Amino acid sequence: MQNDLSSQSDGVADGSAAAPDDVDAALDPVARLEAEKADFKDKLLRTLADMENLRRRTEREISDARTYGVTNFARDMLTVADNIRRALENVPAEARGAHPALTSLLEGIELTERDLLKTLERHGVRKLEPEGARFDPNMHQAMFEVPDPTVPAGTVTQVVQAGYAIGDRVLRPALVGVARGAPKANDSSEAESSSTAKG
């Protein structure tokens, strides 16, 4: 029984040895207030950072809404622009000057097309003019290859349908024909050297 009492007194002694530190921390108002201050300061800084991130995200969303809000409408208007262009291209050149009424009608359609394109540009939609440029798969859609040794491989040589972009996004890729280009100088010299080696 004395052993039990001595073990209990050891436990109390251990507990009492640990308790003064906890009691000192709990009773020391300066340490407690410093801990609360650090906690509140951390919460304040996190809240300020969250609010700044929210402000930036909201500004970006508002900017995107202004820039890209007309995307669906603009995409629908591209069909109108295409039809106007097709109407103008399908009138034979010899018929253009033959009848004054037809000439006036064509001038009116051309004016309507220019006005439509200017209106689209005013709202951030621009026409892509890729002919002669390097093929860009982000802006162009290759429809066919054209063997053309006069231009480097990968150059847009023909535009089947104009493309459009709004802001920095593609509204509709341009449908293009891409040049295969001339064979590389190394390929032709290797072919010549292998043919002379065989001969």
Write a short abstract of this structure.
The protein is built from six helices and six strands.
Q: Kindly state the percentage of residues in helix.
A: 55-70%
| CATH fold title of the largest domain | Nucleotide Exchange Factor Grpe, Chain A, domain 2
How many domains would you count in the coordinates? 3
Identify the overall geometry: elongated
Order of helices and strands: HHHHHEEEEEEH
Low-confidence stretches are 5-18, 184-199
Describe the structure.
The protein has 199 residues and is an alpha+beta fold. Helix content is 63%, strand content 16%. Helix 3 (71-89) runs antiparallel to helix 5. Residues 5-18 and 184-199 have low confidence and may be disordered.
Write the layout of secondary structure elements.
Elements: H1 2-27, H2 29-68, H3 71-89, H4 93-96, H5 100-122, E1 125-128, E2 140-146, E3 156-161, E4 163-166, E5 169-172, E6 174-179, H6 185-198
Parallel strand pairs: 2-6
Antiparallel strand pairs: 1-4, 3-6, 4-5
Name a few traits of the molecule.
3-stranded mixed β-sheet, elongated, Nucleotide Exchange Factor Grpe, Chain A, domain 2, single chain, 6 strands, alpha+beta, 199 residues
